[in-house]
Design a protein that fits this description.
Length: 127
């Protein structure tokens, strides 16, 4: 009986691990206004969200008051590495943009637009 329970638990864990989205993980942003961040991307309900996990400037790691704040939210999985319908916050300008993302291996192309004004960054996966 104990062997059966152990096997069932292992099956549940392996099936659960199969549902992880390839975008899950930590991503390094490009430098914006002299600083960059590591963003922890993970599911939030049936959407994808990203939270500022660490912050850096030219002298190294800093303890920004933005740590722990949500940077990306409401992002929907569209398939084949495409994500859309979300929002992204630019801390340096305190602006929120409509956002989409495109995943290609360890590179994440992120864009956000307010009306005709769009900004783009390429993020890299942190190992």
């Amino acid at each position: 009986m104990k062997t059966l329970l152990t096997a069932a638990a292992a099956l549940v864990l392996s099936v659960g691990a199969g549902f992880a989205d390839p975008i899950d993980g930590t991503w390094k942003t490009e430098v914006d206004d002299g600083a960059y961040a590591h963003i922890a991307v993970a599911p939030c309900g049936d959407k994808i969200c990203g939270v500022i996990a660490r912050t850096f400037d030219s002298s190294g790691e800093t303890k920004s008051p933005n740590i722990g704040k949500q940077l990306v939210w409401d992002m929907s999985v569209k398939g084949e590495g495409a994500y859309a319908g979300g929002k992204i916050w630019q801390p340096s300008k305190d602006k929120v943009y409509k956002s989409k993302m495109a995943l290609n291996g360890n590179t994440l192309k992120v864009s956000g637009c307010v009306g005709p004004i769009c900004k783009k960054q390429t993020w890299s996966r942190v190992n």
